[in-house]
Amino acid sequence: MRWNSFSARVSSGCWRTCISPFRAAGFLAFEQRSRGGCSRRGIAGSGSDILVPRVSTNPGNEPISPGEEALNENNRERPWYRQAAEVIPRHVYLKFVGTTTFISIFFVAYFYLLKDPAYPVTVMPRIWLDHLIGFQPLSLPFYLSLWFYVSLPPALLATRRELVDYAMSIGGTCLVGLIIFYFWPTAVPVAHIDWALYPDVDFLKNMDASGNACPSLHVATAVFSGIWLHYLLRRFGAPLWIVLCNWIWCAGIVYSTLALRQHVAVDVLAGLALGGLAASLSLRKSQSRDVFY
User: Fold this and answer.
1) Which UniProt keywords apply (predicted)?
2) Would the N or C end of the chain have less CB density within 10 A of its end CB?
3) CB atoms within 10 A of CB 26
4) What are phi and psi of 260, to 5 degrees?
């Protein structure tokens, strides 16, 4: 039976349907994203195509980020850890080189301001919260784990654009902190502790002096990373206990800055505000670029 070809157009311009003999030796569908938000599908042996709007696979009609878009529908049905394992190798050289370069540049600027402050140094005051938290040398592993923790969000990003946006956002966060350190040098008050009794902590104190206190960039980068990790883990569909572990880890890092006497509570609160605000703005910027299909 031979079918006459016909076409129909809709005023929105998103539908253009062409139907020709379709009882062929099978169907071959392919999809190509176009600027109009439409998908092109072809039928093997027919020489025709069908251009239809792309339909969202997100039943909640929530924003779909470019990285989430890169995870196809089949992957979303797979276990979250397999999805994460598949994303990590993507742009692996950019992730490794970018993270290493960023941390190196940050430390150069950080220690320069630490050793040579441009203005008189202000000693930050203690408040009631500082007296509630005693010195805890066992919290040192949490403190040092920050450098691994901050590398997790970029490792779980799927696209080059997400990596660039993330780098610009966390770089801007650190830049704000460094500018504050330059114009308003601060230091934590002296802790009356014999550091020789705690050689590991003493080594940290010799490496990272008491300056560059407020806001705590240790806290700011931990909170920034924690918020982004929460977003990425939810995107992968990770279970609740994994999401909670992320926040326990983040809270441990924040707590360690007080427990090791690296910062006082005012520094921590300022770091929480800086990191939380920066992460929220960066996620909002990322979602503003999302496209509904």
Assistant:
1) Membrane, Transmembrane, Transmembrane helix
2) N
3) 7
4) -95, 0
* Cβ(170)–Cβ(227) below 8 Å: no
Contact between 143 and 257 (Cβ < 8 Å): yes
Percent of the chain with pLDDT over 70: 71
C-alpha 67/C-alpha 80 separation (Å) is 15
261: pLDDT strictly greater than 50: yes
Minimal CA–CA distance to 236: which of 153, 167, 169, 163? 153
**What Cα–Cα distance (Å) separates residue 124 from each residue in 180, 184, 203, 214, 291?**
14, 11, 23, 8, 46
256 closest CA partner among 89, 139, 130 = 139
Helix axes 265-288, 160-183, angle to 10 degrees: 150
**Alpha carbons 262 and 242: distance in angstroms, whole number:** 28
Distance, CA of 185 to CA of 233 (rounded, Å): 37
| Residue 199: how many other CB atoms lie within 10 Å | 10
How far is 171 from 102, CA to CA, in rounded Å?
Answer: 8
Partners of residue 186 on adjacent β-strands: 122
Predicted TM-score of the model (pTM):
0.72
In whole angstroms, give the CA distance from residue 72 to residue 273. 35
Which range, of 25-29, 69-73, 140-144, averages the lowest pLDDT?
25-29
Rounded to 10 degrees, what is the CA torsion of 195, 186, 252, 243? -160
Q: What is the DSSP string of 97-153?
A: HHHHHHHHHHHHHHHHHHHS-SSPPEEPPP-HHHHHS---GGGHHHHHTHHHHTTHH
